[in-house]
Design brief:
- The structure holds 2 protein chains of 2 kinds.
- By secondary structure, chain A is mostly helical.
- In chain A, 75% of the residues lie in helices and 0% in strands.
- In chain A, helix 3 runs antiparallel to helix 8 and helix 8 runs antiparallel to helix 11.
- Chain A starts with 14 loop residues before the first helix and ends with a helix.
- Chain B folds into 2 domains: 31 residues, no CATH class; 226 residues, MetI-like (MetI-like fold), CATH 1.10.3720.
- Chain B is built from 13 helices and 4 strands.
- In chain B, the strands form 2 sheets. Chain B has a two-stranded antiparallel ribbon. A two-stranded antiparallel ribbon of chain B has the order 3-4.
- The chains are: A mainly alpha, B mainly alpha.
- At the A-B interface, helix 1, helix 3, helix 4, helix 5 and helix 6 of A face helix 1, helix 3, helix 4, helix 5 and helix 6 of B.
C-alpha cells in the first residue's frame, strides 16, 4: 500500500468495488446462517440472545443421528473405493507415452463431471429399480456404488497431478538396484503417491457427503442421508436446528479443505 | 509408430488397461452404462404405477413438445412443457450473464493483487465452491423469505411496511443460482487474466486508448477463452439445476430438472422423464463441444 503509484495501469474503475461487494455477499448469507444457529429463539431473522441449545437439541434427535451415521458410512466407503480405483487408474494412465486408450480413460473418468446430476440420478433410478426387483436386495450397496462412481474424478485429479510431477528416474533407479516390481511399487512409488491419494480421499469424502440429487434418486425408503434429510426439513419448516447441523457440516468441510490445500501446496 | 510391435510398449499398454479396469467397470455400472438404459426407456410405454410397460412407443418423445387434446384429439404444442423449457433456458442464461458481469471484475481484482493476497482471495473463492450447495441455497432462502432477515431488516428501518415476496419466484432462483455458481465463473476467468500480459495495457495507454477502449479491444479479446470456459461451466449446472429451483422456486417455478423428477414421482411417466433427460444431456453435450472447440482451441493457439 505504501508504494502505491500515482497511475496504476491495471486498475479499472469500479472493479475493486464490485469485487469487494462480491466477497461480502458471498460470505454474508453463510455467516448469517452460522450466527443464527446460536440464536436462543426459534427465529432465523430476529436475534434473541446467544444460546447453544440447538446443538444438543439436534444431537438428541434420533433421526438426525441416524442420517448422520448413514452419510458418514457412505462417504467413508465411497471415498475409500473411489480413491483405490482412481489411484490404480492414475498409475495406469500417467508416466508413459500418450495413447488413444488413455484419452478414452480420461473421458470416462471425467464423465460424471459433465453429465448433469439429475440425468445420472434418473438413469441410476431406472437401472437400480430393475436390479432391486430382480435381486430383492435393498441395502446401502446401491448408494455406495453410485457415490463411488461419481467420486472417481475428484479422487483422480490430485493423484494424477502428483504422479505427473513425480521424478521417473526414482523408479528406474530402484529397478537398477534389483528391486522387483512389487518392491519398487511398495517402497518407491506408493510413498510418493501417498499425499496425492490422501488429498483425493478428502475431496471424494467431501463430494460424497454433499451429494443430494443422485442420493435422492438412488436411495430406497428409509435411507435418507444428512443432505436429503435436510432438504425435506427445509421444505417443511425452518428451525434453527437445521442451522446448527449446517454449521457443523460447514466446519467439517472447511477443515478438510484447508488440510487439502496445505497438503497439495507443499509440493510447489 | 512402431509402438504396437514393440513388446515393451505393448506390455506397458496392457498394464495400463489392467490398472484402469476397476475404475472403468465402476464408472460403467454406476454412471455411464445406465444412460443407455435410460435412452431405451424413453421409447417405452409408461406403466400405470410408475416404471414402464415393455412396448415400443414414441409417445414420450412426441410429448416432449406436443400434446393431443383429450377430448377432440387435435394436436397442439404442450404449453406447460414449453414454459418450463423457456424458464430453464432464460434463468440459466441470465445467471451466466450476471455471473460474468460481477465475476469479471472480481477475477480481475484477484489477479492484480500481490502474490500473497492473491492466494488468500483465491482460497476465499474456492471455499464456497466446495461447501455444500444445499447449505448455501438454504442460506439464501433464510435471508429472502418473508419472515427472513432482509424483510425483517427493511420493516424495522421503515423502508417498507409489508414484506416483499421474494421467495418462490423466478427472481429468487436467479439470485440463488448466481450465488452458488459464481465461483465457477471466477476461477477460469482468473486463470485467463493471470496469463494476461499487462504490458499490453501500457501499450494501449501510450496509444491514447481510453480505459473502456482497452477493456473492449484489448482485455476482452485476449481473455476470451476464460470467458467462454466460465460461461459454459456456469451454464451447464444452471440449466440442469434441481436443488436451487426446488428450495427457492418452490413448486410453481419449476425448471427442467424439477420437471424430470416430477415424472418419476407424482407424474408416473418414466418414459417422458427419460426423454427429457436425454434432451438435457444432448444440450449439455453441445455446450461442451462448443467449449472444447473454442476455449481449448484458442488456448492452444496462444501457446503455439
Amino acid at each position: 500500500m505504501a508504494e502505491r503509484s500515482s497511475f496504476d495501469i491495471s486498475r479499472l474503475p469500479g472493479f475493486a468495488t464490485v469485487a469487494v461487494t462480491v466477497f461480502v455477499l458471498l460470505y454474508l448469507p453463510i455467516a448469517m446462517l452460522v450466527v443464527f444457529s446460536f440464536n436462543a429463539g426459534d427465529s432465523v431473522a430476529i436475534w434473541e440472545g446467544f444460546s447453544f441449545r440447538w446443538y444438543p437439541e439436534a444431537w438428541q434427535n434420533e433421526e438426525v443421528k441416524d442420517v448422520t451415521f448413514r452419510s458418514l458410512k457412505i462417504a467413508t466407503a465411497a471415498a475409500l473405493i473411489s480413491t483405490t480405483v482412481a489411484t490404480m487408474a492414475a498409475l495406469g494412465t500417467t508416466r508413459r507415452r500418450a495413447t488413444r486408450g488413455q484419452t478414452f480413460v480420461y473421458v470416462m473418468i471425467n464423465q460424471p463431471l459433465m453429465v448433469p446430476e439429475i440425468v445420472t440420478g434418473v438413469a441410476l433410478l431406472i437401472f437400480f429399480s430393475t436390479i432391486k426387483v430382480a435381486t430383492g436386495y435393498q441395502g446401502l450397496g446401491y448408494l455406495i456404488l453410485a457415490h463411488s462412481a461419481f467420486c472417481i474424478p475428484f479422487a483422480y485429479l490430485p493423484i494424477r497431478a502428483r504422479l505427473e510431477g513425480m521424478d521417473l528416474t526414482l523408479e528406474t533407479a530402484a529397478s537398477d538396484l534389483y528391486a522387483n516390481r512389487w518392491q519398487t511399487f511398495r517402497h518407491v512409488t506408493l510413498p510418493l503417491v501417498a499425499p496425492g491419494a490422501v488429498a483425493g480421499l478428502m475431496l471424494a469424502f467431501v463430494t460424497s457427503l454433499d451429494d443430494v440429487v443422485i442420493t435422492l434418486f438412488v436411495k430406497s425408503a428409509g435411507q435418507d442421508t444428512l443432505p436429503t434429510y435436510m432438504l425435506a426439513q427445509i421444505r417443511r419448516s425452518v428451525s434453527a436446528e437445521v442451522n446448527a447441523i449446517s454449521t457443523l457440516l460447514l466446519l467439517l468441510t472447511v477443515v478438510l479443505l484447508t488440510a487439502f490445500f496445505l497438503l497439495t501446496r507443499k509440493r510447489s | 509408430m512402431s509402438a504396437p510391435d514393440d513388446p515393451k510398449a505393448r506390455d506397458e499398454a496392457r498394464r495400463g488397461w489392467l490398472l484402469s479396469a476397476p475404475a472403468l467397470v465402476l464408472l460403467v455400472v454406476g454412471a455411464s452404462g445406465p444412460l443407455l438404459i435410460m435412452l431405451v426407456y424413453s421409447f417405452l410405454e409408461p406403466g400405470q404405477y410408475g416404471n414402464v410397460e415393455w412396448a415400443l412407443s414414441f409417445k414420450a418423445w412426441f410429448n416432449v413438445v406436443m400434446t393431443r387434446d383429450i377430448f377432440d384429439g387435435t394436436l397442439g404444442f404442450a404449453d406447460a412443457h414449453l414454459t418450463i423449457f423457456w424458464r430453464s433456458a432464460k434463468l440459466a442464461l441470465l445467471t451466466t450473464l450476471f455471473a460474468f458481469l460481477v465475476g469479471f471484475p472480481t477475477a480481475w481484482f484477484i489477479a492484480t493483487r500481490s502474490p500473497g493476497a492473491r492466494t488468500a482471495f483465491l482460497f476465499l473463492i474456492t471455499i464456497p465452491f466446495w461447501t455444500n450447495l444445499l447449505i448455501r441455497t438454504f442460506a439464501i432462502n433464510q435471508i429472502i423469505r418473508n419472515e427472513g432477515f432482509l424483510n425483517t431488516f427493511l420493516l424495522w428501518t421503515g423502508i417498507i411496511d409489508a414484506p416483499i415476496v421474494m421467495l418462490y419466484t423466478d427472481f429468487a432462483v436467479f439470485v440463488g443460482m448466481t450465488y452458488v455458481y459464481l465461483p465457477l465463473m471466477v476461477l477460469p476467468l482468473f486463470a485467463a487474466i493471470d496469463r494476461f500480459d499487462m504490458r499490453l495495457l501500457q501499450a494501449g495507454y501510450d496509444l491514447y486508448a481510453s480505459r473502456w477502449q482497452l477493456l473492449r479491444h484489448v482485455i476482452v479479446p485476449v481473455v476470451k477463452p476464460g470467458i467462454i470456459a466460465g460461461s459454459i461451466l456456469v451454464f451447464i449446472p444452471a440449466l440442469g439445476a434441481y436443488v436451487t429451483p426446488r428450495i427457492l422456486g418452490g413448486g410453481r417455478n419449476m425448471m427442467i430438472g424439477n420437471f424430470i423428477e416430477l415424472q418419476f414421482g407424482q407424474g408416473r411417466n418414466w418414459p417422458l422423464g427419460a426423454a427429457l433427460s436425454v434432451v438435457l444431456l444432448v444440450v449439455v453435450t453441445i455446450a461442451l463441444i462448443v467449449y472444447t472447440r473454442f476455449a481449448a482451441g484458442s488456448q492452444d493457439k496462444s501457446h503455439g
